[in-house]
Design goal:
By secondary structure, this protein is of the alpha/beta class. Helix content is 48%, strand content 12%. The protein has 2 domains: 14-192, Rossmann fold (3-Layer(aba) Sandwich), CATH 3.40.50.1970; 199-388, Dehydroquinate synthase-like, alpha domain (Up-down Bundle), CATH 1.20.1090. It has helices at residues 21-32, 43-48, 51-59, 76-88, 100-115, 191-194, 199-218, 224-246, 251-264, 266-269, 276-288, 292-307, 312-321, 329-339, 356-363, 379-388; strands spanning 14-17, 37-41, 63-67, 93-98, 129-130, 136-137, 148-152, 163-168, 173-178, 186-189. Strand 5 and strand 6 (136-137) form a beta hairpin. The protein starts with 13 loop residues before the first strand and ends with a helix. Residues 14-191 form the Alcohol dehydrogenase iron-type/glycerol dehydrogenase GldA domain. One of its GO terms (molecular function) is alcohol dehydrogenase (NAD+) activity.
Length: 390
């Protein structure tokens, strides 16, 4: 499928899996020589479980402080607030414990610490912008000396990525930030933490990891290694996520889903560009306030149908991985989402045709729309995809 290309390895040192988070984290802190560990956590984990207490206890005198209450979609205001707290704590390592929004907030906080950004407008010069050809142009800036460790509480896989999304709430618009050293230095996968995630968030985040895999598989800029890894991840997630839904206390199923998320995200961490599902999903979140974990089940069947004329080989492989050899990949993915009890069209998440024009215009500011395998050059093509998702 790929006759030539380049594979990019990420700026990440370790993935530690199947071990209690507190014990694994302490080993990493000692390995890195960190003395002032600042924790960024989801409010539900901090106030509704003992997971964060376990972390604090394990760290002992190296625990330097904590912020929680980071809202979904990662606002600029939350980022600068966490930066001020981390600077006050003299942090030399950031640990993110939570879902994708917490992880994204920690990534950009490392940059804000490095550049002493404590006002929301200070992020303006660091966002990735599009040139006239629609090619993303990350600004050049010094990478963070204070790195981060991610302990995810969901399956989305955004931690396997050196970029992050931050919402400018004044414009209801998500912006992308990127630096190779925003990648977590280590990722710790503890299946016990997954049981605390609300069901729809947990299941939707599993489909989000599959989104990373599908868009990498369909990308003309993928490579044989990425294809092989993400197909294995897709097959595993399709098998184990329904089983995990049936019994959230099934540690084996939860652990297999974490491994599946890791494999599904291999294209993302290897910088294979995503496509229309990601671009439109970012806008549905930032502009229409659709939870990020519901954007994939709502949009991916439509994106697959739109892209099918130019991704037939990839979609045949995808259908096989989803247990529907010879069938429609779009139908197979939609059937899986229905089996998981997730929404599968825009009206299910209260996005109507009256919002389509704004969604289409804002999507053209997302650089992933320009790397979609089937060309999208104007808002008209975005509207065509949205109509397939009604």
């Amino acid at each position: 499928m790929h006759e030539s290309g380049t594979h990019v390895f990420p700026s990440m040192e370790r993935v530690i899996y199947g071990k209690p988070a507190a014990k694994a984290l302490m080993s990493e802190v000692e390995r890195l020589g960190s003395q002032r560990v600042f924790v960024m956590a989801s409010r539900s984990l901090n106030r509704g479980t003992d997971e964060i207490r376990k972390i604090e206890t394990a760290l002992g005198p190296r625990f330097a402080g904590l912020v929680d209450g980071l809202a979904q979609h990662t606002s600029r205001q939350d980022v600068v607030a966490s930066t001020r707290a981390a600077l006050d704590a003299k942090a030399d390592l950031i640990v993110a414990i939570g879902g994708g929004s917490v992880v994204d907030a920690a990534k950009i906080t490392t940059v804000c610490i490095e550049h002493r950004i404590t006002d929301a407008t200070g992020l303006d010069d660091f966002a990735v912008k599009l040139n006239e050809a629609g090619v993303p142009q990350p600004p050049t800036f010094r990478g963070p000396a204070v790195r981060m460790i991610a302990i995810p509480s969901t399956l989305s896989g955004g931690e396997y990525n050196a970029g992050c999304l931050v919402t400018d709430t004044g414009r209801d618009l998500k912006q992308t930030f990127y630096h190779p050293e925003m990648m977590p230095v280590s990722i710790i996968l503890d299946p016990a933490i997954l049981r605390h995630a609300p069901e729809n968030l947990y299941l939707g985040s599993g489909t989000r990891a599959m989104d990373h895999a599908i868009e990498a598989l369909c990308s003309p800029r993928g490579n044989p290694l990425v294809d092989a890894v993400v197909l294995q991840g897709l097959e595993m997630m399709a098998h184990w996520l329904p089983r995990s839904r049936a019994n959230r206390e099934d540690a084996e199923a939860a652990g297999k889903c974490q491994i599946a998320s890791w494999l599904c995200s291999y294209g993302l961490q290897s910088r294979v560009p995503m496509g229309a599902s990601h671009a439109i999903g970012h806008v549905l979140g930032g502009t229409c306030h659709v939870p990020h974990y519901l954007c994939t089940p709502v949009m991916m069947p439509a994106v697959l149908r739109y892209n099918e004329p130019v991704t037939q080989d990839a979609q045949r492989a995808l259908a096989r991985a989803l247990g529907a050899p010879g069938g429609s990949a779009a139908d197979a993915f939609k059937a899986l989402c229905e089996r998981l009890g997730l929404p599968t069209c825009l009206r299910d998440v209260d996005v109507g045709r009256d919002q389509f024009e704004l969604v289409a215009r804002n999507t053209m500011t997302e650089f992933f729309i320009y790397s979609n395998p089937r060309k999208v050059q104007t808002p008209r093509e975005v509207l065509d995809i949205l109509e397939l998702a009604v």
